Structure formats: structure tokens, C-alpha cells
Amino acid sequence: PSVVRRQDYLPPAFWIDTVDLCFDLEPAKTRVLNKMRVRRNPAAPEQPLRLHGEALNLARVLVNGQGASFKLEDGLLVLSNLPDDEAGFDLEIFTTCQPDKNTLLSGLFVSQGTFFTQCEAEGFRRITYFLDRPDVMSVYTVTLRADKAAYPVLLSNGNLVEQGELEGGRHYAKWHDPFRKPSYLFALVAGQLVAREQHIKARNGCEHLLQVYVRPGDLEKTEHAMQSLIASIAWDETRFGLHLDLERFMIVATSDFNMGAMENKGLNIFNTKYVLANQATATDTDFSNVESVVGHEYFHNWTGNRITCRDWFQLSLKEGLTVFRDQEFSMDMAGSDSARAVKRIEDVRLLRTVQFAEDAGPMAHPVRPDSYQEINNFYTVTIYEKGAEVVRMMHTLVGEAGFRKGVSLYFERHDGQAVTCDDFAQAIADANPESELARLLPQFKRWYSQAGTPHVYAVGQHDAAAQTYTLTFTQKIKPTPGQPDKQPAVIPLRVALFSASGQPLQLQLQSAEGIEPAASEHTLVLHDSLQAFTFANVPEAPIPSILRGFSAPVVLHQNLGDEALEVLLEHDSDPFNRWEAGQQWAQRLLLAAIGAGDASAEAAPTPTVLPERFIDALRQVLRDPQLDAAFQDLMLTLPSEAYLAEQLDVVDPQRIHQVRQAAQRQLARALAPEWQAVWEAHQDTGAYRPDAQSAGRRALAAKALFMLCLLAAETGDAVWPGKAYQRFKDAGNMTDRLNALTALVHAGHPLAEPALTRFHQLFKNEALVLDKWFQLQASAPDAGGRGLHKVQQLMQHADFNLKNPNRARSLIFAFTNANPAAFHREDGAGYQFWADQVIALNAINAQVAARLARALDAWRKLDEPFRHHAEAALRRVAAQDKLSKDVREIIEKALV
Ligand code: HT7
Ligand code: ZN
């Protein structure tokens, strides 16, 4: 396989200063005339000009208006004997491509009769020959020509400078983007679209036109996206002093898209899933996702577009930083401290289930990878979520104001440039020369170069005579592929201490200089494999609260007894660690139950997994009127099956499922009166609002209904399923409707079937709602082992379409990634199905296929008989001769 290595980076041999593109748009054959001003890079060794190109038909190449000699070598257009003029030369290339055959959705493609582009990471080379690398930045002028009736709206980056009529019912629009940009930020859209528009005036007095383009009929679903955009603009001004630099900012939605959205300069292209939302069709989660994705793409305008990446190994430079920014934006929008904590918990749950698993598996890679075969495989949770945690640790180490200073310095130094992760870290450290970050910068940057999750072991020792309490920490990172030896990481640990009755204690940290001033919390900074910290004047053995707010992306091991966890669960003033205490306790109980029985010898699941004391603690949480509903909901959620699997060396997915289900049923039974009270107390009749508070109340009510329906499945009670069906029918919003339907489906109640039929009937013309319909069925419990059969049946449904990534994800991925008990079958049929779908998708859309391929990343940890079936399925895929390099990289790494 051909491997791209970070250490092989060389600056480009040429610069492309300006690009003038003219498109004659036709679905079957689009003509592209590309006129560039090219100049040799004096700093690079002399080489021919090698332009990237893929799936293009080349018609003409002219240099300074004359026919030029060129070669096509491995997909590259190679031009030598070029003019040696310092001022450069004109290069004109004429090609055609076939957008309607482009099922890969990279480059120029057609979705429902509209042209769209997707150029990140390497899609521009599917539009024209170019130096398709992020460090080549150019000024673009783009003319779009198309049939006016079929494509009335013609959009590209920047400002509209001209438009008019052409012969034969055609028309044109000319766009100019004054900002230099890399080719991956180029975009065009042409089709029958309508826009919600809003004029805004920024703080600095500049006026801007904001537009959200959708298909006719979807306009009334764009209000939330527009409000989210306006909020994002205001937030970036307030929090970072970054203003919108364009006259016009456009968002366009498409239903065929490989990812969530794309930050093309001034012309963001979005998956409809992250734009369209109204209360009838979108859930609270959808509303909140729209807000955060609109924010994320908007924030890229500075972190990604104004300053971009030197090469794709630096991808986290823009993605980690922008995820950090969108997380902070969502927290600020959520409002209360409790709502902020809920958002933090949700982010950490994603990190710990998906990213920690990635870091422990065959695809483990550093936040700044050293090599790749296919860059599209590196848009990962490590680059995004772990990358955001690295930025968050910098923020913790230099503080809020210091971080803002650092970001300002970063823009002062690098605006308009293509830079590296080192440049970012250096700017934050240089702006805060007295900080621990500046002191420890070379070690801190190991977060960029070392893969794997650090494990931190904490031991507390109280010295009654000296009245001191010492916390001793050791840290260790397990080997990952290609990295057998690891160095200690810099780990900021926010720490507090509590008395045995849960009172917060004042901390007096002893240092070489003496005793530091008393504080309720300290940030201890680990940087060695063994370190101890001593607190003075601690009369009794305290209970430590470590890693508050999840201040570093590590696994913390501490031997706290159940009593201590109970105290923290009830009293920790840090909501994250309060939640974490409950999770730690639940995890310990569930893992003990999983390990306690031989699954094959034990037909019935462990009947009582949770002791009365644990249930009592949760009962208090559920009864506490001071707590926000969203927080109560999270406290009452047991660790997921995926998270539990992550804690085990040998995984029996069926056993994990049985035990978690048993615990869930126990909570349903033991807390039935509380669930009823919760349901009654959260019957809001007010107008629907998707804010964090209201969404939290709906989520908690949904959990109550879910539990009561689960219990009804045991007792035969008809009341709660009846109420669920009623709610399903009468709900005034999609959140309540879908939650009620979910309760019926997961309880396996007979009313689930008519409800599903009715749901389909109601929403058969709403693609995003149909996705939910497929997804719910694909992730439903595997009653009698029929889950796989159900999914296979649904693949034959008239509304299923493997070519549409959202639909493929909602059915196939929901089954393989979110329904472990149905997917991991003892007969291996789930894996065979997975292999069939990877092979089928590979021929349509290699990027989506490669994502699906990752569902078996952790196959080596599986217990038998799962493991040998999984291996056979992987080997079957590996043996395919027409495998894309995307899928091949994933499968080969899994089989190493
Ligand atoms: N920067 C965007 C990445 C992206 C992408 C990458 C590969 C293939 C298709 C893609 N669509 C969007 C998304 C983001 O992080 O904002
Ligand atoms: Zn991004």
C-alpha cells in the first residue's frame, strides 16, 4: 500500500496565486475551464509541476496560451520545461467530469437534481487538475453557467460580482472570493433552491447578508439554523473578538453527504440532518446538533479557513480547536452551571466510549498522525474529540483570559497562513510565559505525538500524626501500533477534598516554597511517571475528588470504596464528578456481575445486579427537587454496553447485554413509584421550546416512560404501554412522539407494531424522520434473535437506499454499531451481513464503506465463538480484489 508520511513533507514546488474557473454545468458531462497563474516556489528544489487529478477527462493544456508538453503519470499531470519567469506563467487546463456518476460524493456531484461539491480533503482534484494540498492558497474567481430553469440558483465562495442571461435558456453567475484559500475550501452549488435570509449588523458596524438555502418546501425548517448562525457570530465576537469577514455567509443543505457539514469559505454545505429542524420532525437532540454543527462550521471561518493546515497531518489544528470552540459555544448557550455540566458529560461519554476504544484498537493514532494511506480514514474521534481535549487542557493550564490572549497571538502571527499544531501550541504558551504550559511545552506536546490513553493510578494516604494527606499518582500508556514505548504525559488534574460527611475542605498544598494559600480546588499538574502531592492541616482521612470536570482525557484508577463513592455522588460540588461517582459505582457492580457467571451455564440473567444501597442513592437523586432534570436523567443512566466492553480484556457482548438489561429492569422495578412521580411532574403543556431546560424535562419524562413500559413487559400491566401509545399519537413534538415509540419498541410491546406503521404513514415524505424510523428498528432489542432478519427485511423496503449515506447509516450502522446484542450473534451471521454491506458499499462510496468497516475494530477482544466468526468475515472482505484503499487500510490494520 502507498503510505504518506508526515516526515516526508516538502513545501510545494510551485504556488498558484490565482484561479479562474469556468463551469458549464451538466449532470452527465460538466466542462471545466481552469486558468491559473502559477509561479515557481524559489524555496523549493527545482522539480516539474505535478498536478493532482482523479476521474477527469483531459482535453487541453496551454502554457502562456501555447500548447504544452505534458505526461499523465499515476493520475498526476506532469509538466516540465516550464517558463523560468519569476513573475510566473499562465496555465490553462480544460477537462470534463461526470457529476451524475459520482456516487462517492467527493468532488462535483448531483443530489436530487442539484449540483454540490465536497472538496475536503482531496475532492478538488476530481473537479480539475490542481496542486490539491492545503498549503497552496489561491484567490478564486468562479463563473457558473447552466440551464436557468433547472438551475436557477448558482452559488460559489465569496461575493457575487456579475450575473446575466446566456443563449439557449442558460444563465451565468460570477463569484469572487477575495481571501486566499486552499482548494479544499472551494465550493459551488447549482439548483432549484430557496433561501431564508437575514441582514445583520455586526458590533463593528459592518453589514452582512446571511442565507440558508434549502429545497422548496423545507424553508419553514430553517429558522433554528438561522438563529444558531446569528448566535454563533455573536459568540465568536464576544468570546474571541473574531468577527465575520464576509459580506455574505451562506449555508446550503443537501440530503446526500458523507459527513455532517463542510466549512467552505462563505458557502458552508450541510447535511440536511444538521440544518432542517421544526418541532414536528426534529427531536431536542436534533435541535441541539443543528446549533453545534452550525457553530462548528462557522467557527472554522477563523480556525481552519483564515489560518489553515500546512498538511493533512495537522488536521487536528483546525478540527480539535474548532470542536473545543463549538463545545464551549454549546455550553454557553445552555446557560446554567448544571446545563453546562450536562453538555460536558455528554461530550465525555462520547470520548470515553468511542475515542478511548479507538486509542486502544488497531486504528490508534496520535492526534497528529505520522502516516496514513487514505486521509479520509483520519477524520476520527481522535483528531476531533481527543484533539479538542488537548486544546481544553491548554485552556485549563493558562486559564480563560490566558487562552484568549494565546488565540489572539496565534492570529497575529499566522493569519492567512497554512501552519502546524506546533505553531498553535507555541502561540498559546508564548502568550502565557509564566504558565505551566510554557514551562512544560515540549512534554505537553507529547499529546500530539503519542497515541493511546494514559492510565492514571491515584493512591491517597492520610498521616494522622502529621495531619497531612498525600496523593500519589503514577501514569502509564499502553503500547499502540508502531509505538511500543511511551513517555509520561502532562496531565492537569483538578482536585478537591471532602470530609467523610461530604463537607468541602480547604486545600493547603505543600510545595518546595512552603504551604500555598488555601483554596477549595487545585489543579495538580502531572508530568512524571510517579508524583506525590501533600496537603497540610488535614485532620481526618478525606475523600478525594480527582479529575473534576474531566480535566484530562485519561482513565483514572482509584480505589474508592462504595461509601466514598456514595458521599461524592451525594455531595460533590463538581457536577461532573458527582455523575462520575455514580458511574464508577455502577460500573463496578456491572463488571462484577459480568465476571461472576459463566454466561453459557447461566440461562437467566443475574437477577439482582444492583444492591439496595446503590438504588437508594439513585432514588435520592430522582427525588431531589433541586436537581435539573437533564442531570437527573444522566445520573439514572447506566454505563453503556460499549463502555462496559471497553473496560474488559475479553468481551462477551451477549453477557454484557444480559447483565445491563437485568440492572435496567431492576431500576425500573425498584424505582417504579419515583418513575411514576417523575412522569406526572413533567407533563408540560406549554409551547415547545428546544432549550436545554425544557429538553432535559422531556428527556427525564421519557426515561420514566421507558422504565415503566419495561416493567410492564414483565408484569403484563397494560396501563403504561397504553399511555405510551396515547402519547405517541397525541404528541405535539417529535421528541415526545419518538420517545413514546421508543418505549414501546424497546419493551417489545404488541402496540409497537401498529405505532411503527402509523409513524411511517405520517412521515413517509420526511426523509430525516424516515431515517429515525429505520434507526429505531435497527437498534431495537433482538427479541428471539430476530434483529438481523428485521434489518435484512428493511433493506428491501421501498424507502431504503444504500446510496444515500444518511439512510445507510440509519439502518446498517445503527445495527452494527448501536445494537451489540443483535449484531454479535453466536452463529456469526451479523458479521457476515456486515461483510456483505462493506463489500456492497465499497463499490458505491468508499468513504462510507470504510466507516462501516470500522465496526469490527475490536474483534480481537471478542470471546469465542464471536472472535473466529469475526475474523472470517474480515478475511472475506480482505480477499476482495476490487477493494478501495479506504476500506483496505481499515481491514488490513484490523487484521495485523
Ligand atoms: N471539515 C469537514 C470535514 C468533512 C469531510 C471530510 C472528508 C469527507 C467528507 C467531508 N465532509 C466534511 C467537516 C468539519 O469538521 O467541519
Ligand atoms: Zn470541523
Automatic annotation (TrEMBL):
Domain Peptidase M1 alanyl aminopeptidase C-terminal: from-to ranges: 562-895
Ranges where the Aminopeptidase N-like N-terminal domain occurs: 114-185
Peptidase M1 alanyl aminopeptidase Ig-like fold domain: residues covered: 452-558
GO biological process, one term: proteolysis
InterPro entries: Aminopeptidase_N-like_N, Aminopeptidase_N-like_N_sf, PepN_Ig-like_sf, Peptidase_M1, Peptidase_M1_dom, Peptidase_M1_pepN, Peptidase_M1_pepN_C, Peptidase_M1_pepN_C_sf
Entry's EC annotation: 3.4.11.2
Superkingdom: Bacteria
Swiss-Prot/TrEMBL catalytic activity: Release of an N-terminal amino acid, Xaa-|-Yaa- from a peptide, amide or arylamide. Xaa is preferably Ala, but may be most amino acids including Pro (slow action). When a terminal hydrophobic residue is followed by a prolyl residue, the two may be released as an intact Xaa-Pro dipeptide
Domain Peptidase M1 membrane alanine aminopeptidase, chain residue ranges per copy: 225-437
Entry keyword set: Aminopeptidase, Hydrolase, Metal-binding, Metalloprotease, Protease, Zinc
Gene3D superfamilies, alphabetized: 2.60.40.1840, 3.30.2010.30, Neutral Protease Domain 2, Peptidase M1, alanyl aminopeptidase, C-terminal domain, tricorn interacting facor f3 domain
Enzyme class per UniProt: hydrolase
Gene Ontology molecular-function annotations: alanyl aminopeptidase activity; metallopeptidase activity; zinc ion binding
UniProt cross-references to Pfam families, sorted A to Z: DUF3458 (PF11940), DUF3458_C (PF17432), Peptidase_M1 (PF01433), Peptidase_M1_N (PF17900)
Cofactor(s) needed: Zn(2+)
Entry-linked PANTHER family: PUROMYCIN-SENSITIVE AMINOPEPTIDASE (PTHR46322:SF1)
Family (UniProt): Belongs to the peptidase M1 family.
Protein name, entry field: Aminopeptidase N
